[in-house]
Design goal:
mainly alpha, Rossmann fold, Tyrosyl-Transfer RNA Synthetase, 2 domains, three-stranded parallel beta sheet, globular
C-alpha cells in the first residue's frame, strides 16, 4: 500500500533557528519514515519581500544543508528548490483565478505584514497563500505539517482544492493539517508575545549555526516573567514557558519532569541548563551544516536529483490541470 504524500518547506531567508527545528525540522525527520515526503526550499515565497540575490542563493544552499544536517535522508524523501520546478508558479496562477479577494484579505499573516510594509507591501505578499496552495496541491498532498500560524493557509488550500474539483472534476487531493502539540510556535527570546523569527534581531532567536558562547549569552539575556517559579503556564508565564518548551525538545524530558527538576532553583540555574541542552543538541547539526557548505558537491547532487523527481511528478499533475481547465490546443 503506497504511503500518503506529505509536503512542507521553509523559506531561505537568513539563518534557520531552533524555532524552525522544533516547529518543523525535528518533526520532518520522524515523518519521513511514515509518509512519502516532499521537502522544498521555498525560494519563491522568500521574494515576497526584497532579497539580495547573492545572499538568497547562498541561503538556499544553507537551508538545504540544514535539512540534511538535522537528519532528512534523500533515500526516504525528496529535497529540492521550489523555483527549479516552474509548475509551482503555473499552478499558482491557475488557482489565483479561483481564489476570492475577500479570502486573501482575511489572511492574518497578510494583515500583519501589510502593516509592517505599508504601501510597499507587494502583490506577491497578498497572494502568498495561493502559491502555498499550489505547492501543496501540485503533488496530491494529503498531509501538511504546519505551525498554528499557517492553519488559515491550509484551510484556503482545502477550499481551493474543493472549488477546483467541483468546477472541473476531481483533480486534487484535499489535504489535512498536522500540528505538533508542544512547540509548534516557539516564541522570541526577547519578546514572548511574538514568534521566533530570523527576520528580527539576533537576540530574538538561536540560529542552528550559533557557537556555544553565543547561545549561552542569548539564553542568559532572554526575558523572564515576574515571579521566580519555573512552571509551564503559557498564559501567565509566557517567557519561562517558552524556555521550558525549548528545554523539553532539547532533552526529551516532559513538562512535569522539568518543573520538578527546577522546583527549588532560580532562573539563573534554569537558563544555564537550557543553554547547555541547546548546545548539546545543535553542536552536531552545526558541524554537519559547515561540512556540507565547505564542499557543496554532494549537496548539489541531492538537489539535482530532488529537482528531477519533483519535475516528473509536477508535470504529470499540471498536464491534467491544463486539460481539465481547457488550456492550450488538443
Amino acid at each position: 500500500m503506497p504511503k500518503s504524500k506529505l509536503f512542507s518547506g521553509i523559506q531561505p531567508t537568513n539563518l534557520l533557528h531552533i524555532g524552525n527545528y522544533i516547529g518543523a525540522l525535528k518533526q520532518w525527520v520522524e515523518l519521513q519514515k511514515k509518509y512519502d515526503c516532499m521537502f522544498c526550499v521555498v525560494d519563491l515565497h522568500a521574494i515576497t519581500v526584497p532579497q539580495d540575490p547573492k545572499e538568497l542563493r547562498q541561503n538556499i544552499l544553507n537551508t538545504a544543508a540544514a535539512y540534511l544536517a538535522v537528519g532528512l535522508d534523500p533515500k526516504h524523501c525528496t529535497i529540492y528548490v521550489q523555483s527549479e520546478v516552474p509548475q509551482h508558479s503555473e499552478l499558482a496562477w491557475l488557482l489565483s483565478t479561483l481564489a476570492n479577494l475577500g479570502e486573501l484579505e482575511r489572511m492574518t499573516q497578510f494583515k500583519d505584514k501589510a502593516k509592517k510594509h505599508g504601501e510597499r507591501a507587494s502583490v506577491g505578499l497578498f497572494s502568498y497563500p495561493v502559491l502555498m496552495a499550489a505547492d501543496i496541491l501540485l503533488y496530491d498532498t494529503q498531509v501538511v505539517p504546519v505551525g498554528e500560524d499557517q492553519m488559515q493557509h491550509v484551510e484556503l488550500t482545502r477550499t481551493l482544492a474543493r472549488r477546483f474539483n467541483t468546477r472541473y472534476g476531481d483533480t486534487f487531493a484535499v489535504p489535512q493539517a498536522l500540528i505538533q502539540k508542544v512547540g509548534a510556535r516557539i516564541k522570541a527570546l526577547d519578546d514572548p508575545a511574538i514568534k521566533m523569527s530570523k527576520s528580527e534581531s539576533s537576540a530574538n532567536y538561536i540560529a542552528l549555526t550559533d557557537q556555544p558562547e553565543v547561545i549561552r549569552k542569548k539564553i542568559m539575556r532572554s526575558v523572564t516573567d515576574s515571579d521566580k517559579y519555573i512552571r509551564f503556564d503559557p498564559e501567565k508565564k509566557p517567557a519561562i514557558s517558552n524556555l521550558i518548551t525549548i528545554y523539553h525538545h532539547a532533552t526529551g524530558r516532559n513538562l512535569k519532569q522539568i518543573e520538578q527538576e527546577f522546583e527549588n532553583k532560580g532562573y539563573g540555574d534554569f537558563k544555564s541548563a537550557v543553554a547547555e541542552a541547546i548546545i548539546a543538541l545543535l553542536d552536531p547539526i552545526r558541524t554537519k551544516i559547515e561540512n556540507y557548505l565547505r564542499d557543496p558537491s554532494e549537496l548539489q547532487k541531492i538537489l539535482d536529483a530532488g529537482r528531477d523527481a519533483a519535475l516528473e511528478l509536477a508535470e504529470q499533475k499540471i498536464k491534467q490541470v491544463r486539460d481539465r481547465v481547457g488550456l492550450g490546443r488538443k
